[in-house]
């Protein structure tokens, strides 16, 4: 029980590079690794948006094949979405901004009609 009481978890938003995102000890305390972590969260959020609007089902495919492909795509998308959510749950403001910006830019490129 003593080991549990010595562990603390941030429960309010904070700004700083000293945080753990997704994996123990990552990104550490180095500024470059923190920036890399923000880029990874941004890219994951964009990937989620890309998968949300991706249509690659070919006309004439069997219904079962279409259903399996859609199910696999949905599973991958939800798994990545949960990774982004877990990253945001660190309560780091930089991670939160990276996730929201990734979803926003991803929607701009893949969901809106700006580039279609």
From TrEMBL:
InterPro entries: Cop_transporter
Keywords annotated in UniProt: Copper, Copper transport, Ion transport, Membrane, Transmembrane, Transmembrane helix, Transport
Gene Ontology cellular-component annotations: plasma membrane
Transmembrane segments: 32-53, 80-110
Record Pfam families: Ctr
Membrane topology: Multi-pass membrane protein
Cellular localization per UniProt: Membrane
GO molecular function: copper ion transmembrane transporter activity
Family: Belongs to the copper transporter (Ctr) (TC 1.A.56) family. SLC31A subfamily.
PANTHER family xrefs: COPPER TRANSPORTER 3, SOLUTE CARRIER FAMILY 31 COPPER TRANSPORTERS
Designated name of the protein: Copper transport protein
Protein's organism: Macleaya cordata
């Amino acid at each position: 029980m003593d080991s549990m009481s010595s562990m603390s978890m941030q429960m309010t938003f904070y700004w700083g590079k000293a945080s753990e995102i997704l994996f123990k000890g990552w990104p550490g305390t180095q500024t470059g690794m923190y920036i890399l972590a923000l880029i990874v969260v941004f890219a994951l959020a964009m990937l989620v948006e890309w998968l949300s609007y991706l249509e690659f089902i070919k006309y004439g495919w069997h219904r079962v094949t279409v259903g399996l492909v859609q199910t696999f795509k949905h599973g991958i998308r939800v798994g990545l979405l949960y990774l982004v959510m877990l990253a945001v749950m660190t309560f780091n403001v930089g991670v939160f901004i990276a996730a929201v910006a990734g979803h926003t830019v991803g929607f701009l490129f893949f969901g809106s009609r700006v580039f279609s």
